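user: can you give me the structure for this one chain? tokens are fine.
assistant: on it. calling the predictor now.
[tool input]
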Amino acid sequence: QVQLVETGGGLVQAGGSLRLSCAASGYIFGINTMGWYRQAPGQERELVATITSGGATNYADSVKGRFTVSRDNAKNTVYLQMNSLKPEDTAVYYCNANVIGRRTYWGQGTQVTVSS
């Protein structure tokens, strides 16, 4: 079994910063792509950023220049540094991991609230 645990969410004022972490544990030989997604109330889940095992990154246009995704392959952990936060960034943030030889797993989500 594989588990993903997200930490680092919370309440922040507009213009502030937060750093999310997501650690994968369990029966893991390796992880291909890891990513962050978010879902605001009444909206569909959307991609925020992804990162491959080699470090190639992809970002949603809405977060480019403000968010940075990174990972520590030795720790099976992915991070999301969020700067210049806006009220429209308010959502539940989920991480996922495409585990080699298995499937894609999701975390339970962490709430990020940005006040204006």
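assistant: here you go. The chain has a mean pLDDT of 96. The chain has no helices and eleven strands.
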